[in-house]
What we know:
CATH superfamily: Response regulator
Shape: globular
Amino acid sequence: xxxxxxxxxxxxxxxxxxxxxxxxxxxxxxxxxxxxxxxxxxxxxxxxxxxxxxxxxxxxxxxxxxxxxxxxxxxxxxxxxxxxxxxxxxxxxxxxxxxxxxxxxxxxxxxxxxxxxxxxxxx
Length: 123
């Protein structure tokens, strides 16, 4: 089965890194959004199988975005991986409580991304 990913990050460079890494891992179908607000707009018309989001973004940050995803019956079961510079334990706990399946602290390697995705998909 081919999975469709949503990559949410205000940094075009970071979105490109995530999308290119996903493509190298065999995941060709990647939708991109610059923040949580745009991501929710895209999710209103597109179904995705997996979300990778940043935390620190303008308009709607990653935590608020995750809370919106989990509160919506149509998207509440979509797995979410957060990739962020926020490495403080309290932030990680807040993200997990909001519904994030796993958490990567930037910078990261393609191998770490692959391991986290594989782990989430095997849950």
